[in-house]
Design goal:
Elements: H1 45-50, H2 56-63, H3 67-77
Helix pairs in contact: 2-3
């Protein structure tokens, strides 16, 4: 899932959910982060990034991989998009 936030919007990420932010507008932005636990859970990044339905172009932008490589990894790990 991806969402575009507007000024004043707040987003809460559930415990253990891999997440990332991209400043798509190119203007200065501010983010505040806090954690609900001193010992966060383990997240296997390979599956979180490539076994999902996020658009391949978005994953490519955040991982600095080209779209063809992202699609290949999605095919191997069961992702779509």
């Amino acid at each position: 899932m991806f969402k575009t936030l507007k000024k004043g919007d707040i987003m809460v990420f559930p415990h253990g959910l891999l997440h990332f932010q991209v400043n798509a507008c190119g203007v200065p932005a501010v983010a505040f982060a806090s954690f609900s636990s001193a010992s966060p859970n383990l997240q296997i990044t390979d599956f979180a990034l490539f076994a999902n339905d996020l658009p391949s172009s978005l994953v490519a932008t955040t991982t600095f991989l080209d779209v063809a490589t992202v699609r290949m990894l999605k095919d191997v790990l069961g992702g779509t998009g």
